[in-house]
């Protein structure tokens, strides 16, 4: 259940990701969490009002991108491999949990649950022998439904 706070929004830097209820390590950045409902316009030919009706259509969920430093684990690669080989276990539940700044009760203040998520794209790098940056990996997820808890 989300934890409301009166005058001060939560900061964005304390979050955790779980895939099928397992911690998968920290991520530096998560973007694109969202959902939208498509609208269909409809009008009867004998309507007295000269305007269309707007009817709710299908739910769409935006792709989510997760970025982190390469940790030397193959868990994300194994997941995308399950997707590309058509395994039934490729659909997973992903939870993104936001915590308060002080993590006072170590309970998330908001959780985004991505239902029936599948890995779409896994990118490594860039790798640069002259750079000082952390080697990164980026995972793009598609999912069917967003729920909040």
What topology does this entry show?
Elements: E1 15-19, E2 22-23, E3 29-31, E4 35-42, E5 53-61, E6 64-69, H1 75-84, E7 92-98, E8 110-124, E9 136-142, E10 145-148
Antiparallel strand pairs: 1-2, 1-7, 3-6, 4-5, 6-9, 7-8, 8-9, 8-10
Give the tally of β-strands. 10
Text of the CATH class: Mainly Beta
Low-confidence runs (pLDDT<50, min 5 residues)? none
What is the structural class?
mainly beta
Oligomeric description of these chains: single chain
Helix percentage: under 10%
Our Rg estimate from Cα atoms comes to 20 Å
Distance between the termini: 4 Å
Number of helices: 1
CATH architectural grouping:
Roll
Task: Please trace the helix and strand order, writing H or E for each element.
Answer: EEEEEEHEEEE
Biggest sheet descriptor = 8 strands, antiparallel
The shape is globular
């Amino acid at each position: 259940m989300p934890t409301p706070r009166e005058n001060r929004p939560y900061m964005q830097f304390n979050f955790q990701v779980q895939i099928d209820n397992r911690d998968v390590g920290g991520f530096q950045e998560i973007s694109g969490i969202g959902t939208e409902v498509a609208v269909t316009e409809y009008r009867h030919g004998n309507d007295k009002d000269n305007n269309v009706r707007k009817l709710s259509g299908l739910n769409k969920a935006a792709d989510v991108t997760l970025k982190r430093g390469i940790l030397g684990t193959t868990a994300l690669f194994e997941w995308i491999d399950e997707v590309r080989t058509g395994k039934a276990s490729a659909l997973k539940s992903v939870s993104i949990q936001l915590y308060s700044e002080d993590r006072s009760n170590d309970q998330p203040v908001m959780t985004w649950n991505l239902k029936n998520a599948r890995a779409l794209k896994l990118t490594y790098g860039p790798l640069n022998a002259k750079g000082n940056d952390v080697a990164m990996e980026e995972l793009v997820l598609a999912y069917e439904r967003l729920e909040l808890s």
